[in-house]
Specification:
Layout lengths: L2 E6 L4 H10 L4 E6 L20 E4 L14 H7 L4 E5 L4 H12 L4 E5 L10 H14 L2 E4 L2 H9 L7 E3 L17 H10 L8 E5 L8 H10 L5 E5 L5 H7 L5 E4 L8 H5 L3 E4 L8 H8 L4 E4 L3 H6 L4 E4 L4 H11 L2 H15 L4 H19 L1
Parallel strand pairs: 1-2, 1-4, 2-3, 4-5, 5-6, 6-7, 8-9, 8-11, 9-10, 11-12, 12-13
Helix pairs in contact: 1-14, 7-8, 7-12
Length: about 375
């Protein structure tokens, strides 16, 4: 069986699902550098697989962006394998890309998106353009917008293949939106006693998520709704902002295979981030038939919000407040929920791999 080596920093749940879907067709080895992520709960990361081999590179201090020289040893041992680098930014990936360039080995680089809303210095942009145009050969990327970004930075159009990035499998997409009675039943089972609309956001409580904007918007909006922030311990700043209000609820970290319960009892998903390279929580919320409100600095919003929600200017609390009120209107909320399901059916892990397979097969065909 032909072999694929995937080089990544850590093994996120969606990365593992993608690799295991690839493993239905190829022999897949996942090579990773670290067991922790400063933005994630350690329980979120994966370290075992039923269908992929997993290799941990030497990283004694488990640094966020360690340079692991033994990646070259792994690549040397299997000169016939197709190498897929998960991103071009991590130091270990850059070392691997440089080695493959010197050895004239074709590689694919997997690109989830790009950092909207972040400013980079001229020298960083120059280095980025050099990596994309000179070290990387082929690309798999999340969306047409990401493809345009890669081409603007030196990639050749014919070498960039869009695969509709996702973290969900086909069987995780519900068939139709839940009605009010179904949501109320689930809420009671979870110990949540409210008949009011629920607005939800999921993610770590870190500054770039801009949850302060969302809290303020919910406190200001006309809709008599409840906000559930799921993903960790709230900061003192968030607690001060929501003090005295019974609208704001904080939920600690929830495992990936359980968080869908919170999506399912909700009526609207909001992602207010200052920047998100993609924003997979949007995919996940849409799979549960939720309308979406997103800041315009989330790349996912460019591809996934189309008649099923509102994209507002990042940091504009007034726009965010109005968007929440619009999307909680009963008639609009229902039609947006249906539209979310229509769109997200084109964004699954199985679909990602099916879009990648022709190019992977072409690679191995050319090797024969």
């Amino acid at each position: 069986m032909d072999r694929i080596i995937v080089v990544t920093s850590n093994i996120a749940p969606y990365r593992l699902c993608w690799c295991e879907e690839l493993a239905r067709f190829y022999d897949v080895t996942i090579v990773y550098t670290k067991d922790h992520d400063y933005e994630r709960d350690d329980r979120w990361l994966q370290k075992e697989s039923a269908s992929c081999r997993i290799v941990k590179l030497k990283n004694d201090k488990d640094e966020y962006d360690a340079l692991c020289f033994d990646v070259i040893d792994v690549l040397k041992k299997d000169p016939e394998a197709l190498i897929i680098f998960d991103g071009y930014g991590p130091k270990t990936n850059l070392l691997g890309l440089l080695y493959c360039k010197l050895k004239k080995r074709f590689t694919y680089t997997n690109v989830d998106g790009y950092p909207l809303g972040e400013e980079s210095s001229r020298w960083k942009l120059t280095i980025k353009r050099f990596i994309i145009s000179h070290l990387c050969t082929g690309f798999f990327c999340s969306s047409e917008a990401t493809k345009e970004h890669l081409i603007e930075n030196g990639a050749k159009s014919e070498n960039v293949h869009v695969h509709n990035f996702s973290s969900i499998s086909e069987d995780r997409i519900i068939s139709k939106p839940l009605n009010v009675k179904e949501k109320q039943k689930l809420r009671k089972e979870m110990g949540i006693e409210t008949e009011k609309p629920i607005v939800i956001s999921v993610g770590a409580f870190i500054p770039r998520k801009r949850y302060e904007d969302l809290i303020q918007a919910v406190l200001n909006c006309r809709s008599d709704c409840q906000l559930y922030l799921v993903g960790g311990k709230p900061t003192e700043g968030y607690l001060r902002l929501s003090q005295g209000s019974d609208r704001i609820h904080y939920i600690d970290f929830v495992l990936p295979d359980q968080v869908y319960h919170y999506y399912r009892i909700s009526d609207l998903f909001v992602l207010p981030s200052q920047t998100d390279v993609w924003g997979l929580v949007i995919n996940e919320a849409m799979a549960e038939a939720l309308p979406i409100v997103s800041s315009d600095n989330c790349v996912a919003a460019k591809s996934l919000v189309d008649g099923n929600g509102v994209v507002y200017r990042t940091g504009d609390v007034d726009e965010l407040t109005k968007a929440i009120d619009v999307c909680l209107n009963k008639e609009k909320n229902r039609s947006m929920a249906i539209r979310s399901l229509e769109i997200i059916r084109g964004y699954t892990i199985e679909g990602m791999v099916q879009r990648q397979l022709p190019w992977i097969r072409k690679y191995f065909g050319n090797k024969q």
